Amino acid sequence: MNPTYDFTGQTAFVTGASSGMGIATARAFAQAGAAVTLADVNPDALDAAEKELRDAGHRVLAVRCDVADEDQVAAAVTATVDAFGSLDLAYNNAGIQSPTTDAADEPASVFDRVNAINLRGIWASMKHELGVMRRQGSGAVVNCSSLGGLVGLPGRAAYHASKHGVIGLTRSAAVEYAPRGVRINAICPGTIETPMVTQMLGSGDLDRATAEANQPINRLGTAEEMAQAVLWLCSPGAAFVVGVALPVDGGYTAI
Fold this sequence. Notes:
single chain; alpha/beta; Rossmann fold; two-stranded parallel ribbon; 9 strands; globular; EC 1.1.1.47; glucose 1-dehydrogenase [NAD(P)+] activity; SDR_fam; oxidoreductase; Glucose 1-dehydrogenase
């Protein structure tokens, strides 16, 4: 049984919100009483996610946003505050994977694109979220890193570089903003049943049996399990948790 949370009267902002861990977390925030902004680059999936939450009676705003474009991120944050009056909770989830590549062969264009979304996108999101939270004197931010932010694997240099960078951003901003009433942490998901992982399995870039065997719990994680980790980090139950890169990986990094 998952714990229950009450975020009534608060506003949550979620990037990469139309699928996978993003929609699972947005749904969980909404079910806990928060108004939710869904920010995503995919207009069709964004419309479907908005309809789902609105039809369930939740307060929701959908904003098309490419986190690699800081101006779009700033506009999405502004729209959130205009619509709901505050920004109290943020889950910076938007990210992409890249095919496995020998480090000596990786194109600069791939490195730049992965880092533009996975690292610069979180930097831009956090920057504009913190601008609001600094004025409020309160807030909680969770950034999505990865087990790839804690370890290295062959063929994934660009992706792991971006996810290691997220942890550095998180820790530095966390110690800066903790005295101002804003808590910042990161989660480091293992291999999770999401559309991105499904695509990797379909392309042969990831083998399910190997992925399951690499996690001592002997299964892939679920998006809902990641959402519960995010909500806990945003909740009063984690009031003394600051600057943590929390593995949520079925034991992968415990080996």
